[in-house]
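for the record, two folds in this file. i put them one after another cuz i was lazy. first one right below, seq on top, structure tokens after. the second one comes after a little note so u can tell where it starts
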Amino acid sequence: MVTFLGGIFLLVLGYFTYGKYIEKNFQIDANRQTPAEVLKDGYDFVPMPKWKNAMIELLNIAGTGPIFGPIMGALYGPVAYLWIIFGCIFAGAVHDYMIGMISLRNNGAYLPELASRYLGKSMKHVINIFSMLLLLLVATVFVVTPANLILSILPKGFLALPWIIAIIFVYYLISTVLPIDKALGKVYPAFCVILMISTAAVGFRLVTGGFDMPNLTVSTFRNMHPTGLHIFPALFFTISCGAISGFHATQAPMVSRTTVNEREGRFTFYGMMIAEGVIAMIWAAASMSLFKGQTLNQMIASGTPSAVVNQVMVMLLGGTLGTIAIIGVIVLPVSSGLSAFRSLRTIVADYIHVKQDTLPKIFAVTIPLYVISFVLTHVDFNLLWRYFNWANQVTAVIGLLVATRYLVLKRRNYFVTLIPASFMLYAVVAYILSQKIGFNMGLNLITYLVSTLITVGLLFLFWQSGQKQLRTVSSDAFLFNDQKPIHYFASLD
């Protein structure tokens, strides 16, 4: 229990200390007008209060990632706590804050546009492909997972899984085309309250229920995975949401379009990632405390982590309260799935230059995306999850490199993003080289050496392009000067 409570304390401490430093390094301007004010359109650009933005951000980024990921990450033992704690404070929360605030300074631009602006125009196409792939996978995963959770609490035979999936799709389709303050602003606060109550209930029962909560000690500081999977790089892909997740880079710009003051950024972006880290800690602790590694592995292998969620809720809270609490878990993937489809529609529309100002145009972009996603729901979940995880962390690397280039151009401390970017770049290269979904080289000395060479090569190219950009930045000072009127970028969105 000491490791669990100490980890949560460190997460909160990180918000007040390192989060404050990251905010200072960014140099906020509380008097600067935001996109929500300047570009207000009653649809995507809508001023909303800080508390509502924070709730939307938390539900957008959470999904089942900080639940399913830590459940599977618990197979490695207490060492998983370290990745959640330090990954969240020094990588994930920094990533979310920087992308949210850079977007805020660039009229709510999404990651592809930011990559084009700060990494070069040729990167826009690469990032668009990765962003669209990631969001499509996220949206599909967050149709399947809530459907399985809903099925687990319904009376047997009451409703078949395909019908539940169809109902979720209909809900997503309706909500995707509504103004953001109606689709998200009205229902997300209620969803967030349900989430917080159910999560707090699980955490409270863990602490007060006399459960044997494993601590990180000399004897447990090792790989405890029952099938012997390597900690690196597998753990860093198993637990993404709750540590660092590229999906968040597709969601933060949505909230940057509804934020009315730059002072809100640390609470909304950095703070909500810390909150997600707390959720991840609770579910990792619950999975380690209630199940032995082999039992947990069998439960996951028998279907999806949904079975573990169901068992945890019933064991900790009882049948009735546990079922109610599962609803709090269901709202996570439902809200993130909706946000994923909404972001995907916006990115695709921007890429193919179809302005989303009428319902026919909105449906012309949206419906084909739903058809593709529906087809993907028939793909094996575990295979889908592995591809999602890799695309997710590649997107995180891109987001951190965008943030690094931004800080370089501003002559500020860029190591706060370059260090986690370099580590995650090495991880994604090693993962795709070693895994069956990639080159299937296995994890050996050759794989690590090749991964190192590729990583160093990519970072060198990044450094070279950055030096070139720095030499020409004086002629493009208007483009990179945050103090210039925001209206300059209005035509770009």
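(here's the note) second protein begins now
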Amino acid sequence: MQRIKPLKTGWQLLKSSCEGAAKQVNTSPATSRYYSHRPPQGRGSFGLLFDIDGVLVRGRTLIPAAKQCFRSLVDGEGRYKVPVVFVTNAGNCMRQTKAEHLSELLDVQVSPDQVVLSHSPLRMLTQFHKMRVLVSGQGPIEEDVVTIDMLREAYSLLDVVDHSRRPKDNTPSSKGLPPIDAVILFGEPIRWETNLQLIVDVLQTNGNPDDACSSMRYPHIPVLACNMDLLWMAEAKNPRFGHGMFLVCLESLYKKVTGYDLKYEALIGKPSVVTYNYAELLVSQQAERLGWNTPVKRLYAIGDNPMSDIYGANLYNNYLQASQRTTAQVQTGSGGGDPSAETVAAAASKMTSTERGGTAEEEELPEGCSSILVCTGVYSRDQQEQTVTEQHVFHGHRDFRFDPSLTQPSFVVEDVKEAVELVFQQEGWPLE
């Protein structure tokens, strides 16, 4: 979850993701020049999924092995040898911004169609695109969305924890806002007490926070959350609180106040199967640009967080295995649970092939997805006395059933350079 200064958030991000989907189908000269390698004769095809924080960087500091690793993934002209996609739970920035930042850090060209942010799969939920939504998270907003700051300015009596922010007027007037139709949780906010209070107000009053709670309806208006990471790794020696920790607080407060469970319309970002499915789509498109005439057979997901990166990759692998066993619609809740899959799958089924970024032909899914755990981030061999599967504390989201086997990686390596070397060895590819 690399933190960089965001440019936009809210519906601007959603709309840009949706508009960019169709553009990904066409290979422009600016993009295709970065892909020009066919698989060595007799070799299978594969793709690489990279987490960012704890794998490539620690906060703003690049992990040395990352730059060494990417030198081996491109040729002398900077063109990729295999499909590469970056899958991060960061959300408050544009893909273009993230791609430019990665290009500078890694000293290789990274294009926006190689980046999957936590909110990217939300483009499929078109039923929410025209709603009036409240957005919680960091980053400036442009239009067509209600922010927490806009809400507290309209209803100045709602935010009273910080005495210095209380209204000086004894009878401040409410400006009034149109009713809020849905809540989008993009990432961890700065003032948690303000966001928690106002979001609960909105949910209790059916989107009208100036009303009394006596009119509360349940289920509440839709809530969509991006990024479920409880912890993430920066420069500090120990992991930092992520957006998943904010979700825990919101869920607990709503339950304590109302007696009801907070319900999510969708949970997006790792470890959601939906996110990995979207990443696989981008890998397949890159394989076509490489000139590969066979589908991608395997994916390798490289991450540092057993409860997010590894759990998600293994859950997606279960989905792929189940997909091979039946032609019926696969319920991805098997083997760990992904409560967002049904909602997004229903939305995806209504999309055209162009909106999905594919062709009219039925896509062939990979045979499997292997998970590779590095020791440069959340997980460290030096700090773990137990093996991954012996841990009994579940850091995943409340709505994902805890299956310890899904936190067990296919491979454990020291860093990302060793991870890529392992993949090339597994595939029988030469690593120059």
